[in-house]
Structures
1.
Amino acid sequence: MRPYLLKGHERPLTQVKYNAEGDLLVSCAKNLQPCLWYADDGRRVGTYEGHNGAVWTCDFTLDSSRLITSSADQTVRVWNLPTGQELHQIRMNEPCRACHLSVGEQLLAFTTDSFMGSPPQLHLVDMDLQDFGERQGSAPKASYTAPKGRITRVYFTDCNRQLITSHDGGWVRRWDTETGDMLQEVQVHEDAIQDMQVSPDGSYVITASLDKTAKLVDIASLETLKTYKTGRFVQSAAISPLYDHVLLGGGQDASQVTTTSAKAGGFEARFYHKVYAEEFGNVRGHFGPINSVAFAPDGRSFTTGGEDGYVRIHHFDMDYFTTRFF
Amino acid sequence: MAAVTELDPLEVARSLFRDQPAGFPYENFDLEELILPEDDDMGIRSDEDEEEEEELETETGFGSVIVVDCLPVVPEDKHEKLANVLKKIYSQIGNVREGGIFMPKDANNMSKGFAFVEFFSPQEAQAARAQTDGYKLDKNHTFKVSMFDDFDRYAKVPDVYAAPEIKEYSAAENLHSWMLDKLSRDQFAIKYGDEVVVMWNDGRRFRSEEAYKRTYWTESFVQWSPMGNYLATMHRQGVAVWGGPSFQRLARYSHQNVQLIEFSPAEKYLMTYSSIEPTNPREKVQVALNVFDTRSGKKLRIFAGNMEDYAIGSSAGPGGALRWPIFKWAGGLEDKYFARLAKGAIKIYETPEMTQLDKKDLKLEGVQDFEWSPAEPLLAAYTQEVGDRPANITLYRIPERTNVRSKQLFNVSDVKIFWHPQGDYLAVKVDRFTKTKKSTYTGFELFSIREKDIPMDVLELPNKSEKVLSFAWEPKGHRFALVHGDSARPSVSFYSMKDDKGKLGVKHLGTLANKACNGIHWSPMGHNIVLSGLKALNGQLEFFNVDEFEVLAAAEHFMATDVEWDPTGRYVASSVTSIHQMENGFNMWSFNGKLLYTMPRDRFGQLSWRPRVPSLLPREKEEEIRKGLKEYSRRYDEEDEALLLQADADVLQERAKQQEEWDAAAAARQEYAAQLRAFYEATYGEAAKEKEYSMTTVVVEQLLDVREEPYNA
């Protein structure tokens, strides 16, 4: 294991994300500049300057030419990924949290938090990411209101026909993209879902919750497939594209950290067997809760971003691939 | 008015002269004199008035009168003496009305063996009834006290005897069933969230098995009875006990807002406790204690009063709170006596009468603490040093109240009493003032109870200034351990009460210096001990064998708050309860410090091992088995082996089953995933084809500026 410790943010990380090929990595944090890194050796390529608030999430185009970021400064911005130039922004009146591009990258879905009396909402924007001429819509073409409670993640599913969202209060909901009707809602967790990631084949998701569990949920039926009990808050969870492994990150609530010894926090990244739901390993390093975890698309490395402001890239050693853990 | 003569004269007199002073001699009236002139009722209600209303009136009018029956029958000259005795008894409880004690006499002027006592309020009368019903005046006379109004009620009992319905006999479940487990496993109860689970500890197979589970079983905690036959659950209305293989409810004990409970050692009785905060802050906190018969659920005795009357000496916690248990049960399996501290006395009660032993306190000036021997009705009491009177440790044998041993102590600041679990020894930890009176130092007085005249040894630590943090006797042994030194890295010392040849005398066995330890937990079988550094010390555990004086294993259960040995001394459970936010659950260890399995459970409340019914083997036999353990254990090795293999097979089977289920579900999702993939490829075309990325280094030269500058040599 060769961990690279990346210090690009002075504030807690919010999300780390690989591009489709897995050579680039973007880290978003509560400071204003998301960073672009080489996933292989952790060199910094550059930063994206322009946001005026915490950046919550980001998304890539498949060809890694564009980066979408949504921020608490009430904007969603589109960047030229290699150059760092801001191409476009969508101004809202509420903090923007999750964002996701549809398959084909013609539509962008993003969510806004409830703010100054407005309810939490899901927005859809028409996008032409290659040409930002006059016609580019700077306002959503459709907005759907969600029940009370923050929308923490949003994804297009079912060939862009549906959206799946995770919420505070442990709810997972499915929506019709065209009409905005809520098709199904299930309270999967007892407490807020902090992160949700889609499996490589797109048929199920993993949810990470403050109820100290992570769960696999079928995307079509919202049925719980597996539960991973950890005994500590789970802030983020990822599914290995290579093996039947899942990676969970989290730890003691950040506001409580200084009241106990460092070890009490449980800030390890923990590996569970996806099917047996048994823990088989953990990786220490962060000295604050882990806010985001991500597997590289080839499954041969993973990245964690912590409340401590560090991003750690870990490349697995040979024995990860040769050991029979079970 | 002819009907009048057929009435009970007393009844009539009562209804007519309800405003007479208490003790009014109704019975000596000639009824004929009471008949009133026609059409003149003189304000007295006539018989024609509605009867119902009259009854009602009667009931309320005599609410503050009690009838004390089973009094001695005495001649006239002793009437006053008996009345005075009654007055003395009852004026302690409430305000007896002037002349409110009346004893009817028969024709020979002998008393009839009962008396009426009238109080100022019905509440006082109720209290008097509750407290003196069953009061023992002397050997032959035990009070039978009833409310006067109750006689009305009893009069309504139908004259024809109706046989009560005989309940169908239903065979009770075997309460000892858990002791018959083929693998001789032990049970424990855990509480987490709203669940209570009774589990089998299958340590040999590195797992536990659920025996019984129930949601919302208790509102605060569960408690095993001392012999493990009952599991008590706490509810707002009272306590319930459960037992048998299917955990049927065996009995209920009603006690509103019950907070704490205590079983007697042989579980014949159950004591429940609640305190009532007054609504008015100037009033005093009330406590209520009930004693129940465990098997029948019958309430046998009520103790009630102000908390400050119960919080005395060692029973008083910080801020005037009570320290449970208030009542301490005498040792042994008789359940014969229980006692509590009072001001300057120990109040000893005996069962099944639930009355004070010989009707008097064990008077001890300045008594601060007492403890019963766990083996017999022998109690050690500590009386405080006041002025010239030294502090005293005294052993009393009950019920004789004979002083069997006494020891005076001087310059005492505090005393703690530690009985050996089998009652063989008694250790008294004495904190004495130094000469300057500015600080204290600790010493131990050790009594050997089983020896003639109960000889005593004194133990002082080599370094007198060290604080003693904890002390524990070895169960079924002659040794004890104590933790001493400064609190961050204290030392643990072991001593024996006997030397190798069995001669009495305190002998130092050894000291472990510099241990991160704040608790000591002996195995219930002795020989092994767990040194724990809980809470602030992050859950360090050290498994130590005292016979060989070697560390078996050092381990850590991070943030552990509790350590509990199973009743056989084979396993140790360490747990993190919900006082911590995370990592709740428990770890199971073997006695030699091998981690067997862990069980994380959110909002973990408690773990309690189910106690075992005491062994029927005599101690010598147990020791013999211990000596020949190798021989015996050979028999079980094979069985263990087979169990382990089976356990492994079980785990693999379980995993295979899960994999199978997963694969089946994944196959069902296959179609959906393929559909998504097809759409993805159709949308992106060539770009969707996954490709390996490669790094190429591109050198780009860029000309920024060209400038000519003169060269100055």
2.
Amino acid sequence: MAQPLVKKDDDHDDELEYSPFMGIEKGAVLQEARVFNDPQLDPRKCSQVITKLLYLLNQGESFTKVEATEVFFSVTKLFQSKDTGLRRMVYLIIKELSPSADEVIIVTSSLMKDMNSKIDMYRANAIRVLCRIIDGTLLTQIERYLKQAIVDKNPVVSSAALVSGLHMLKTNPEIVKRWSNEVQEAVQSRAALVQFHALALLHQIRQNDRLAVSKLVGTLTRGAVRSPLAQCLLIRYTSQIIRDMGNHSQSGERPFYDFLESCLRHKAEMVILEAARAITELDGVTSRELTPAITVLQLFLSSPKPVLRFAAVRTLNKVAMTHPMAVTNCNIDMESLISDQNRSIATLAITTLLKTGNESSVERLMKQITNFMSDIADEFKIVVVEAIRSLCLKFPLKYRSLMNFLSNILREEGGFEYKRAIVDSIVTIIRDIPDAKENGLLHLCEFIEDCEFTYLSTQILHFLGIEGPNTSDPSKYIRYIYNRVHLENATVRAAAVCTLAKFGFMVEALKPRITVLLKRCIYDSDDEVRDRATLFLSVLANDGLVDTDKDSKEFLFGSLEAPLVNLETSLKNYEPSEEAFDVDSVPKEVKSQPLADKKSKGKKPTGLGAPPPAPVSGFDAYERLLSSIPEFASFGKLFKSSPPVELTEAETEYSVNVVKHIFESHIVFQYNCTNTVPEQLLERVNVIVDASEAEEFSELSSKPLNSLPYDSPGQAFVAFEKPEGVSAVGKFSNTLTFIVKEVDQNTGEAEDDGVEDEYQLEDLEVVASDYMVNVGVSNFRNAWENMDPENELVDEYGLGPRESLAEAVKAVIETLGMQSCEGTETVASNARSHTCLLSGLYIGNVKVLVKAQFGMDSTKEIVMKLAVRADDPSVSDAIHAIVSCG
Amino acid sequence: ELPPKVKNILLLDSEGKRVAAKYYTDDWPTNTAKQAFERTVFTKTQKTNARTEVEVIALENNIIVYKFVQDLHFFVTGGEEENELILASVLEGLFDAVNLLLRGNVDKREALDNLDLIFLCFDEIIDGGIVLETDANVIAAKAGINSADPNAPLSEQTISQAFATAREHFARSLLK
């Protein structure tokens, strides 16, 4: 056991750190607690022991049930002492020990006595302790005293009772609700905090009675509420009422807005902030309503108090997402915050500016950020990088300066996460803005010239192998890739060899040169690099080892069908023998991951770094998955995969969602099934699809799922044929059929015999927008003018009365499934007309551009003029058909 | 729920070690989770200057306001939707009350020597996450059971005196 420290005098400079609790030990303190049982109590000594006990608990030490009970019983003896200081500590330790119901009995009488004491401090604390530890039956016994306490003339007592009421409302609502008269009286209290607590309790008691709440708020907003805290509460209740009322009164003033607005002139800053925030969060807030709130927030931006600046910039940042125009007035103040000492404030300011900036200010902003980037932490830099990525997608024309910025920061110092965020952003921009591709790839090439992260180098090399060969001049990348073979570690060298091979295979002109380069690699010091080089040389030479072009392609660009984990397990289990290891024997089912792992995956990484997630999603992954299934391999190139559509309610035994994969003349439904019953194993899981309401489709094949164990998702597939290039629509009804087997919970083994069963799923619809891929264009106007105006088809549609223009625009974008361009999906609040630019790729790879002009009259009736240009006039027709039928 | 909520109050030393802490929610269910949170909060704020004004940081979906004095770091945590000025008023109430109770000598040593007062102070500011009081004078009076406070009981001797002597003895007795 640790020896308590040497006795020390008051020498502050002593090296050994001073603490009165040094060497404190639970066992010893519990021994000391015996002083509580002394017939002659020493209050001071007892207080010290309680402090030690509290110290232990506070440091995370836990008492066993026996220890806690023992301490609790001896503590109850201390009620004999009249020492107020000690009593105060007794209250504290009882709350910390949280005694069990049968132990509580021991102290209730003492506490009830204190509840009626003449000493206010006793009354207040006894109430708080009692209410913390008693149950409903005891509560009825003391109810009378609590009601008195609520209206006690001493505010401390009153607050204690009210706050206790707030806590007990959760466990004994019916009792607490009986106190509303007293609580109502307390709302009128002159004591600020009592008013606050009373208001909170009264609202909670009446929260289900909208009329009563409305009346309460109505009365109070007219009168003078004294406490700023109570005023903040009142603002919260008011916004809730406004929210509940919805847009019932569309014309004229929003009720209670005046109250919120008047709170902007309150003397307490917390009230001003609360009101400003409430206004910015109003549903469909108008610019006129916003203006006064933005004005006070703008004043906060230049406050000497960091909390005020933070509060303001945080709120404005949110407003900027929906009403960027409203925030632009603050841009000058915001720009000065870029150099704020508090980096949270600086980062929020930057990201707000990135949201509110217009196309012309991008360059200037980037200059300022460049100075700012060097002195913030990586985590903040990542936020900025992400903001820049979205800015680039919003203003594709500015990709050059934004890409330059990204490539500059990529060259500077930074940790792995930061570098990965930059690389991911560049990759996303390359994917979404075709014009940026060549430039972006070169930046990535330059980065891997001097990249310390093997992971990023290999990922970039892989990406280069896929994108590089399709550029105008693939040869310029070869030098960068081949440099890796000279300068890097074996992992990167091996990746570089693969990339070289892909160029050699895809670009016929480069093949001889690549062959020469690969030949040099067969003298590499690492066997993996040598093996790969030899293999690819053979593939490129087409010397019979691999049969056809198609196989080589599959080999180079395809992916492993089985999850890596399964391959690893199989290889470990493989015992060297005459029989060679058979890759096909590796199970292809994805095993469910341990729970802990799932949790940590809350935030999915995107771009390059994304690991292949368990049930595959993402276009590339779908493409790989489908091409690996022989039945579907002949369908050609996958055109589009829809997001998963749920076919079951949440929390049913079997959870199923479906992904629609669209091919030129086929459609494949991928049913992702999860069995949520631990006692069951499902086998031969199939989906029976009735396509009688989808006439143009005919079922071709289905691929059942052999086994579906508990909590380990699997996929079944059904494929349909449809007329080529036609956007056939229809409704499909689905039934899940399977054989269910009982699983022994102890052994985990399933019984041999199973029972056939089926499970009705919800219907599934294939709609016109399923045939549209939302692909953006970097310059809409150029793209529009480059399309033949002859093929333009214009028509006008009435969209009926709507809440707002924004809602109509959103609905049209969703119906068409197209990509909005140049930020035109955002509608200025209060706008009466709006033009939305959309682009997409229709089945058959037909490029489609849409100009949709919206107008709204005084009755909120909305009309739309839809102009469609497509390379194929029949597609323009089809788009109009979507709108007119949708 | 609408009333403002405080998730925890932390008092850490200059190395990030816990002097006193009180948690009001289950966001950090174990002591390990609590310590990990305290470590993160400490390291993320360590280098900032929070000695004149209350500072603020957003961390793991929480808003944390903080202020330092000598080798003591005070923190108050609320949810990300919380009004940070309310949190700041709680922090200032705590900070000033501790200053009053420790008679201006606010450092780790004094805080540990008067840990009972610190605990009482926490208890008087927040009750189960709900703001109980933010006025430093009232908090200090209730925690210190100061005789100057009209609410304090009158007993055989002035309690504040009794407490003063108790404090002196306290430190030494714990050293034994």
